[in-house]
Amino acid sequence: MLDYPSYLKSSKSGKLKVVVEQLYGRLKSCDVCPRRCKINRLEGTIGFCKTARLPKVYSFMCHHGEEPPVSGKKGSGTIFFSYCNMGCVYCQNYEFSQLGKGREYEFAELAQVMLNLQESGCHNINLVTPTHVLPQILKALEIAIEGGLNIPLVYNTSGYESAKTLKLLEGIVDIYLADMRYADSAISQKFSHVPDYPERNREAIKEMQRQVGIAEFDKEGLIRRGLIIRHLVLPNQVSGTDKIMQFIARDISEDTYISLMSQYLPYYQASGFPEISRRLKNGEYEEAKKILEKYNLLNGWIQESYGSERFAGVNIKPV
Ligand code: SF4
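# iron/sulfur cluster complex -> structure
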C-alpha cells in the first residue's frame, strides 16, 4: 500500500528527496531548531546540541512502556538519540541527553537499525529526541525505504521545535508524540535553559495538529496517525498544567489525546532546585487530573497509579 506510512508516497513523488536536501543544507548554518545556532555542522562545528554532521545514538530497543497505542502488543521500535536541544536540570536520561553517551552512526547504519527494529516485529519507528538530528534521520530514512521500511514514524519530541522545520515533515511523519512541558518562559529558562519554550511549543503543537489531527487507531487499537500530547506533572505546579490544558482545549481540540504523566523524580541536578527537588505528591497528580476534567479533556491516558509508568485505560475517566 503506497499511501501508508505517508513517507512512502513522499518518497515515490520525490518530495522526500527535496526535503532531505533542504534540511541537510541547513546544517551549514544550522537553524533546524529554534536555537538557530547558525554554525556549520557539516564542517564539524557544534552548537547547543553538541552534534555535528553525524547523529549519535545511545541505544535502540523494542519498547513496551510507551502509551498503549504506541507500544501495542509487539512494542515500539525506539531509537534514543544522544544530546538534546533542551537542557533540563531534572532529565532522567541525562547520561545520554546531556552528557552525550552513545556513538556516532553513519546514515546507512542508522537505516539498518530501523530495518532491524521492523524485522523484530515492532509496530513503528519511535524517534526519541529527534529534533537536532532530523536531517540525518531523514537521510537514513531514504536508505531504509530502499531496504523495505514500511512501518510509521513516531516523532517523539520535547516539543521545543521550529514550526518552519516541522512544516517540512508533512507527508513524512504520521504520528507526533509531543511534550508540552511549561507554560511560563521564566520557568522554562530556569529548569530547561530554554527562554522561549512556551511560544515555540505552542506554534509547534498547532502545526502538528494541522498536519495529522486527532489521533486515529486501527482495529487492534494501534495509533495510525495523529497527535498525542504528553504532559509531565512537576512538583509545585511548575509545569503550568492549567494554562497548558486551557490552550489545548481552546486552540487545539477538546478531543486531543493527552498522556498525563506522574513519574517525575528529581534526577540529575534537580536537588539544587528546591521547587523540584522532591518527587510529585499524590495530591498534585490528582489536582492535574481535575484540571483535565475542568477543560473536558477526556481522551488519553492517566497513569495507573500515581508514580508508576503504567497507563490506565484509553479514556480518562472523570475524577
Ligand atoms: S539543531 Fe543544534 S546546532 Fe542546530 S539550531 Fe538547534 S541546537 Fe543549534
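# post-check
The chain has a mean pLDDT of 95.
The pocket of iron/sulfur cluster is lined by residues 30-33, 35-37, 47-49, 85, 132 (CB under 6 Å).
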